[in-house]
């Protein structure tokens, strides 16, 4: 289980790390995407600015070169006598430089041009400015000098005499479209466009957008896209207030604007260049890389989802498995104690009886029929229990041979009938596999309203422990238990360790006499507990308890050691010591290192094995096949084995044939029947049989001469009983021994 928990923890950590790493990758990708987008945007802005600057330079260069041309021309014309005449001779010049015409405006505004047209241009702005001595380039004007009235752009320059007085204005007229044409440049792979506006907002040059018409006001362009209105307003205000708008970037909803002023003609004129790129352009450029990133994002998300699903599934399975293990008995596949408590606690109607059912001598099955038969017996018992319980009832296996039941019954009698039926079925099963001595103990407790099942079950189990060997009644109700006794038991249990350390346990000796009663042939060591107040507690009160909780093994060893020590001491003092028999309980016999331990004690005291004997009860033989081996090894060491309490068990006769002991100690219950015909007959046969098997016979609990006489008649070897002597302290026994 521990290993399992370790595995689960490892798995959880791995899963967590995976999810964490995946999450981190996702966050990194998202972060990179954002960063890249930002980077791309700033690249784009940079690009936009570069394109805008190129446009500005191109426009400036274009105008400047025309300006130079006009300057040269103006100086040339200045040389002529009559410019109104001489201007006509410049037709070649006009053609060479792609002009529409070249004109000379007299100071009164009358203008003659290379194409022979004459007109009064005194109202034209460029004329007025020229007369003020300023260079200028007009907006897109309607041609007044030809009948087509096309759009023209006019560059004008004052013609000054040597004293600096303005003698007229020289103007180069371009077809606006041609002028525009000369400036065409592609930007942003044909997706961007630019336009230059004069101070009035009229479009002077437009590049890359056919929708734009020259002389259209730029506000019209911006107004086409309502979302750009804010930009327009800001720009208009800025321009109106002659604020510096150099290098202003506007990010509109769909487009990105870059506005920059373009000073022309030595600063006489300012146009504004707008360079525009649709945001789409940026998105397209970014699309491929973004697609890749999104694909990665999706992959990572998918990975995380699959991971999480995987983890959830595995954990679901593991959880199920853990739950199964936690709540299932591995052998029967049915409920275990944990499930029992959970289910019964959760029941709506908890008014019922909690029963602890112990299978006594279950180990007999393992011994007699093998482990597999033992397991299959448990399964069969489980089937019996499953059949026995109804709805709203519950059964579970608590331990090896211990079961818990919750039964709802109207009265105790009916409940007992049901447990009786269960016992019958289980006895029948044991009979089928020919295993004797399997019977059942029930501890019963009526669960109270608000009591937890666990607390209730402890009471049922306690009651079960109070079922004694009396096989006529194999159940005890918790209410029947003498609670003072229970408390007393607890006190004894708690006092054990200290008592052992404080040597509160004393060895008393009960002499065994030869049948004629003339001499002591040995003794039995019997424990007495002298409590702190000096009172003696008899073994009947604590031995069964210590047998239940396993403490008896330590007590037996203590007694064995004490007897050895005493024997050696008496020997040294010159007493003629006799064998002392020490009781070994069934629980002590379970310890595998028992023989070695006792052998070492003997060696430690250097006591001859013949001075010590071991008494085992008949019931101790029931449980374990190994006990025969244990007894055999003691006998090899030279330690005699006495079969104690012979005649109280079921299998007395079977035990006789085992030939694993030297002395038969007839139980007091057999002796008590002396004087009754049946009792005497039984005793007679037992003694005969024992003698035939070559066993030494000791009669225990002999209290009167009538009994003694009968035993003498049957040639019983030794007598132990109150008739001759009661158990006594060592000091007293000492006086009985001869030196
Ligand atoms: P047991 O081994 O059968 O010991 C004989 C018991 O019968 C002793 O009781 C003894 O006092 C009693 N007895 C002997 N003769 C008579 C008699 O004529 N009349 C009556 N009424 N009783 C007689 P005790 O000392 O109370 O011991 C009771 C049981 O406790 C022992 O039965 C034995 O099974 C157990 N016991 C005593 N000391 C030890 C021990 O050191 N270890 C273990 N495992 N069990 C012990
Ligand atoms: Mg005994
Ligand atoms: Mg006895």
General shape: rod-shaped
Percent strand: 15-25%
- Major sheet description: 8 strands, mixed, barrel
- Helix fraction by DSSP (H/I, runs of at least 4): 40-55%
The number of distinct helices, counting runs of at least 4 residues, comes to 25
Mean of pLDDT: 85
- Give the total of beta strands: 26
| Spatial order of the strands forming the largest sheet | 17-18-20-21-22-23-24-25
- Quaternary state reads single chain
As a whole number of angstroms, the C-alpha radius of gyration is: 61 Å
Structure in words:
With 739 residues, this protein is an alpha+beta fold. The chain is built from 25 helices and 26 strands. Strands 17-18-20-21-22-23-24-25 form an eight-stranded mixed barrel, surrounded by four helices. The chain is rod-shaped. The two termini are 64 Å apart. The model is unreliable at 1-5 (pLDDT under 50). It binds ligand C2E and magnesium ion (2 copies). One magnesium ion is lined by residues 644-645, 665, 667, 700. The site of one magnesium ion has 4 residues, from loops.
């Amino acid at each position: 289980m521990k290993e399992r928990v370790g595995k689960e923890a490892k798995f959880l950590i791995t899963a967590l790390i995976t999810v964490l790493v995946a999450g981190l990758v996702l966050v990194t990708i998202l972060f990179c995407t954002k960063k890249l987008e930002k980077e791309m945007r700033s690249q784009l802005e940079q690009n936009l600015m570069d394109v805008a600057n190129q446009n500005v330079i191109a426009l400036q260069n274009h105008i400047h070169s025309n300006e130079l041309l006009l300057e040269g021309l103006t100086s040339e014309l200045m040389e002529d006598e009559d410019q109104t005449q001489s201007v006509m001779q410049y037709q070649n010049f006009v053609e060479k430089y792609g002009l529409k015409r070249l004109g000379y405006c007299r100071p009164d505004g009358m203008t003659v041009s290379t194409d022979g047209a004459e007109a009064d241009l005194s109202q034209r702005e460029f004329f007025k400015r020229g007369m003020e001595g300023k260079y200028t380039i007009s907006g897109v004007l309607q041609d007044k000098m030809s009948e087509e009235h096309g759009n023209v752009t006019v560059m004008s320059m004052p013609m000054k005499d040597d004293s600096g007085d303005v003698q007229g204005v020289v103007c180069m007229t371009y077809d606006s479209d041609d002028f525009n044409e000369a400036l065409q440049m592609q930007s942003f792979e044909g997706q961007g466009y630019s336009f230059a506006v004069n101070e009035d907002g009229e479009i002077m040059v437009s590049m890359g957008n056919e929708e734009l018409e020259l002389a259209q006001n730029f506000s019209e362009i911006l107004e086409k896209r309502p979302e750009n209105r804010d930009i327009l307003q800001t720009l208009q205000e800025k321009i109106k207030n002659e604020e510096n708008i150099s290098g202003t970037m506007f990010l509109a909803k769909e487009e990105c604007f870059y506005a920059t002023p373009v000073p022309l003609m030595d600063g006489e004129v300012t146009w504004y260049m707008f360079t525009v790129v649709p945001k789409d352009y940026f998105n397209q450029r970014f699309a491929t890389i973004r697609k890749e990133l999104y694909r990665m994002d999706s992959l990572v998300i998918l990975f995380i989802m699959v991971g999480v699903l995987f983890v959830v599934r595995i954990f679901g399975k593991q959880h199920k498995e853990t739950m199964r293990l936690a709540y299932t008995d591995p052998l029967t596949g049915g409920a275990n104690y944990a499930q029992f408590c959970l289910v019964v606690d959760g029941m709506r109607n908890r008014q019922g009886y909690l029963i602890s059912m112990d299978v006594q001598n279950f180990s007999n099955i393992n011994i007699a029929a093998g482990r597999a038969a033992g397991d299959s017996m448990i399964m069969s018992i489980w089937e019996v229990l499953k059949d026995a319980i109804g709805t709203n009832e519950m059964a579970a296996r608590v331990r090896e041979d211990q079961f818990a039941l919750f039964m709802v019954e109207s009265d105790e009698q009916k409940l007992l009938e049901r447990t009786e039926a269960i016992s019958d079925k289980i006895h029948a099963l044991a009979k089928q596999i020919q295993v004797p001595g399997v019977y059942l103990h029930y501890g019963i407790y009526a669960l109270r309203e608000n009591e937890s099942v666990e607390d209730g079950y402890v009471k049922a189990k306690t009651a079960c422990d109070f079922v004694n060997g009396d096989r006529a009644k194999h159940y005890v109700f918790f209410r029947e238990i003498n609670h003072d006794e229970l408390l007393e038991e607890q006190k004894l249990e708690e006092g054990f360790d200290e008592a052992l350390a404080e040597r509160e346990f004393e060895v008393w000796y009960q002499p065994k006499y030869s049948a004629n009663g003339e001499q002591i042939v040995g003794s039995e060591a019997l424990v007495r507990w002298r409590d702190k107040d000096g009172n003696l507690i008899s073994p009947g009160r604590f031995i069964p308890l210590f047998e239940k909780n396993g403490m008896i093994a330590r007590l037996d060893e203590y007694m064995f050691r004490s007897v050895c020590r005493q024997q050696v001491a008496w020997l040294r003092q010159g007493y003629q010591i006799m064998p002392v028999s020490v009781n070994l309980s069934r629980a002590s016999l379970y310890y595998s290192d028992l023989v070695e331990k006792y052998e070492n004690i003997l060696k430690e005291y250097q006591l001859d094995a013949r001075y010590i004997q071991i008494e085992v009860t008949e019931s101790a033989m029931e449980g374990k096949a190994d006990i025969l081996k244990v007894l055999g090894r003691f006998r090899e060491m030279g330690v005699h084995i006495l079969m104690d309490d012979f005649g109280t068990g079921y299998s007395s006769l079977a035990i006789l044939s085992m030939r694993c002991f030297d002395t038969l100690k007839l139980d007091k219950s057999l002796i008590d029947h002396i004087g009754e015909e049946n009792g005497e007959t039984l005793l007679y046969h037992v003694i005969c049989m024992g003698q035939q098997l070559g066993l030494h016979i000791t009669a225990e609990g002999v209290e009167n001469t009538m009994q003694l006489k009968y035993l003498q008649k049957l040639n019983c070897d030794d007598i132990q009983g109150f008739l001759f002597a009661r158990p006594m302290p060592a000091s007293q026994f000492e006086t009985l021994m001869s030196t």
